[in-house]
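User: quick one - fold this with PAZ bound?
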Amino acid sequence: MTLLVDAGNTRLKWARLSGGRLTGHGAADCLEAAWAQGLEAAWSRIPPPARVLGVCVASQARRGAVEAVARRLWRRTVEWIEPAGQGWGVINAYAEPALLGADRWAALIGARRCAPQGACIVDAGTAITVDGLDAEGRHLGGAIFPGRELLVRTLSQGTGRIEMGGAFQAAELPGRSTEAAVYGGARYGVAAAARALVEQVCPACPPAGARLATGGGADWLLPELPGAWQRRPALVLEGLAAVAEAS
Ligand SMILES: Nc1ncnc2c1ncn2[C@@H]1O[C@H](COP(=O)(O)OP(=O)(O)O)[C@@H](O)[C@H]1O
Ligand SMILES: CC(C)(COP(=O)(O)O)[C@@H](O)C(=O)NCCC(=O)O
Ligand SMILES: [K+]
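Assistant: Sure. C-alpha cells for the protein plus PAZ:
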C-alpha cells in the first residue's frame, strides 16, 4: 500500500492506494495548533504503508512535520513530487517548470488520466486556481486568486481597523457591520473573480474538454461558475496515484 499525501496551505489530505484504488480518505486542518499531533493519531490507525508519496505547497516547517510523523510511525521517508518540464503525459506551461505549484502539477496529471480530451481545472483551496490542459497533454497555463478565507485573513492582517476571527460566515450585501461587509465582500467578490478567471482560461481549452472541480471550497464555488462541472474531490491524489503506479 502507498500512502498519498496532498499538503495544502489549509488542510492536509491523504488516501491509501492499493490495487489501483484510493481508499481511506482523511484530512487534517493545519490551521489548528495541534494539527501534527492529530495527524499522528490519525495515521497511527492505518496499516504501515510501503511508500509515502506526496505534494506539498505549504511551508518548510509543515513539510518537516509530515516527514517526522512518517518517520516516527513507520520509518518511512516521504517522496515529495516536484513539477518537471514534462512527465506522466503532461507538458508544463511554465518557463521555469519547478515554480508551478506541485498540487497543480499533480491535478494536471490526474486530469490527463480522467480527461484525455483535455480539461479546464478549478481548484478551490486556500487559493483558487484555474488551469487549462489540451488533448495532447499540454498545460496551457492558469490563474491564481485568493480564496474566501484567505481574503478575509488578508484584510484582517493588512488593516488597522478590521479584526476578523473564527469560521467564515455566509453574509448578504450590502453588509451593515464590518463582519457582514467583509464576509459578504469576500463571498461575492471571490465568486465574481472566479467566474472571470474561468471565462478567461476555459476558452483556451479544447471545446470538448472536461470541466473538473476540486478543493475544499468546490461546494460553495461551483454554483457560482458558468457551465457544468464534474466534481473530482481527490484530483490531486488521483494524479499522485498515476505517479505512484508509474514509478
Ligand atoms: N473542515 C474544513 N476545514 C477547513 N477548511 C474547510 C473545511 N471544509 C471546507 N473547507 C474549505 O476548504 C478550503 C480548503 O480547501 P483545501 O482544498 O483543503 O485547501 P488547501 O489545499 O489549500 O489546503 C478552505 O479554505 C475552506 O473554504
Ligand atoms: C497556488 C497555490 C498557492 C495553491 O495552493 P493551495 O490553495 O492548494 O494551498 C500553490 O499551488 C502554490 O504555491 N503554487 C506556486 C506558484 C504557482 O503555482 O505558480
Ligand atoms: K489544493
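One thing worth noting: Residues 8, 103, 123, 125, 215 surround potassium ion (ligand 3) (CB under 6 Å).
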